[in-house]
Amino acid sequence: MLELKNISFEVNTPEQQKGILKDINLTIDERFVAITGPNGGGKSTLAKVIAGIIKPTTGRIILDGEDITDLDITERAKRGVSFAFQQPVRFKGLTVRDLITMAAGKPINVSEACSFLSEVGLCAKDYINREVNASLSGGELKRIEIAMIMARGTKLSVFDEPEAGIDLWSFGNLIQVFEKMHEKINGSIMIISHQERILNIADRIIVLAGGRVEAEGTRDEVLPHLLSGTGGVCSVLADKL
Amino acid sequence: MDSIERNLLEQVAQLHEVPEGAYNIRANGQSAARNTTANIDIVNKTDGPGIDIIIKPGTKNESVHIPVLISQTGLKETVLNDFYIGEDCDVTIVAGCGIHNCGDQASQHDGIHRFFVGKNAKVKYVERHYADGDGNGQRIMNPESVIEMAEGSWMEMETTQIKGVDSTDRKTSAKLAEKATLIVKEKIMTHGQQYARTEFTVDMDGEGSSANVVSRSVAKDTSRQEFYSRINGNAACSGHTECDAILMDKAHVTAVPEITANHIDASLIHEAAIGKIAGEQLIKLMTLGLTEQEAEEQIVNGFLK
Predict the structure, then answer these.
(1) Nearest 5 degrees, angle CA A133-CA A134-CA A135?
(2) Beta-strand (E) ranges in B45-194?
(3) What is the pLDDT of residues B96-124, one digit of tens each?
(4) Phi first, then psi: what are they for A4, rounded to 5°?
(5) Within a domain: residue B300?
(6) Which residues in chain A are contacts of B272 at CB distance < 8 A?
(7) A-B C-beta contacts closer than 8 Å
(8) Residue A160 sits in a domain of what CATH number?
(9) Nearest chain B Cα to A102, which residue?
(10) pLDDT, one tens digit for every residue, chain A (241 residues)
(11) Given this model, what pLDDT does residue A174 score?
(12) What's the pLDDT tens digit per position in B220-269?
């Protein structure tokens, strides 16, 4: 269970002081939680705060009763936090297999590594020894990023817009990946998304706008408001959905 | 062979014992072991230190190992080795130098390798440089390669210097005839106060020839690296040179790729990039549970793999 208590994050520049996250209080215990909301609403920042990449200005983060606010990225990862980047990172020289092995945290054989790739719709034998460099497309990188999170199999997996950069043809498969993950997962999945089909499979939807939790609830409670463009959500988001 | 020499041999030739096939092991300025085969002959030069390696035309799937080991402090030598690779050969040549210096005087090996690659011959040349020892004496290697490639020949040169060499000044020059192909893959890591300079000059003289010179390096601590790559397209040919360096600590790297087209159909590309490890690369690996130091090691090892 993840608890966020009074999380705020401010950026102070000589010109201005800007609140990116404003007093966020959330408890995430469900298997599948979707976070949605307009661009610039603080979703990615919140994900980075949870992963330890950004330190909140105020507030505490509690994972299964332990205060992890002061732990660094590595320590949080070891305690079971996984984070899939919105824009995956390229590495010259490191192969897909290297990354999957690092993600698994133990030596794994080729067939185990391949099974994670197959899950995300990549033909394993074509990819396992490829370098994770500029020769891979954005969509391929996203799938590898998701495969790494699956290889980790931790109690909390945070995905930042997994659908971004994936073509329409592959999108259906991606939904299946998450549906399957939803069935199998032992921990919680927190997924930042604008896609209705992803929101549809969420146990709970949280709408983040202007750095605040604008709405939260079950799909039936939140989705109709989102889709109709009412409920205080801006029209840009409504257009997206 | 003692344990120090065995370790050097393993580092430079990845051999645990004497290799299969033809070889010449030079240890502390002397020929320590040699084997020739029906197709590969090795003979001493009569006018100075060094050997001629003569590979008969048509020799396929054979290899030659010529490691040089130095474990005596203060030893300085210059050796000239000539490789005559006959037409239609397909061979692997493994050279390398390992210096173990526990003393206070500099140990230095300057090796000049000349390759005469016959028509349609295929050569894979692997060269590794390694040094260790806890003495104050410098470990110096200055290898020079001169390559002449006949029509339709192919050569891949893989040179690696990962550890322990205090100073190196490496020169490689090549002349390519029609349809000859040269591929160079260089990997260098320097640390401490080491200095490494590499210089490639490739003349593509023949029509349809091609060259690809790629260097990947990591410079740590206060070490310095200089990379010069000069590719001249003197005919209808294609050339590419690339230098990619990771900079760490207070190291210095200079990369100077130079391409010259002397023919209207010469197509040449150069690329050079120097930079520290991207913060997001470290963060990604840390989100997988690696510490910052472990992440750095993985990135560097992968880069030089």
Answers:
(1) 90
(2) 51-55, 60-70, 76-85, 90-100, 107-117, 122-132, 139-141, 144-149, 154-163, 167-176, 181-190
(3) 888 888 888 888 999 999 999 999 999 99
(4) -110, 120
(5) no
(6) none
(7) 61
(8) 3.40.50.300
(9) B288
(10) 999 999 999 998 888 788 999 999 999 999 999 999 999 999 999 999 999 999 999 999 999 999 999 999 999 999 999 999 999 999 999 999 999 999 999 888 888 888 889 888 888 888 999 999 989 988 889 989 999 999 998 999 999 999 887 776 677 778 888 888 878 777 899 999 988 888 998 999 999 999 999 999 998 898 887 777 544 555 566 566 5
(11) 81
(12) 999 999 999 999 999 999 999 999 999 999 999 999 999 999 999 999 99
pLDDT of residue A234: 56
Considering CB atoms only, which of B286, B292, B299 is closest to A91?
Answer: B299
Q: Is residue B285 part of a domain?
A: no
Tokens of A39: 């661009």
Interface test with A, best of B189, B284, B291, B292 (most A CBs within 10 A): B284
pLDDT (0 to 100) of residue A235: 59
Q: What is the CA radius of gyration of chain B?
A: 20
Best to test chain A binding among B185, B218, B288 (most A CBs inside 10 Å)? B288
Distance from CA of B278 to the nearest CA of A (A): 9
Total domains present in chain A: 1
Best interface-test mutation with A: which of B246, B287, B291 has the largest number of A CBs within 10 A?
A: B287
Domain carrying residue B21: 3-279
Q: Do A73 and B283 touch (CB under 8 A)?
A: yes
ipTM (interface pTM):
0.91
B-chain residues within 8 Å CB-CB of A74?
A: 286, 289-292
Nearest alpha carbon to residue B52 among B38, B66, B63, B62: B66
Any domain includes B130 = yes
Sign of CA dihedral B297, B299, B304, B305: positive
Interface of B to A at Cβ within 8 Å reads 216, 244, 278, 280-281, 283-292, 298-299, 301-305
Quote the pLDDT of residue A239.
Answer: 65
CB count, 10 Å around CB of A53? 21
Number of domains in chain B: 1
Contacts A72 to B, Cβ<8 Å: 286
Whether residue B284 lies inside any domain: the answer is no
pLDDT for residue A240? 64
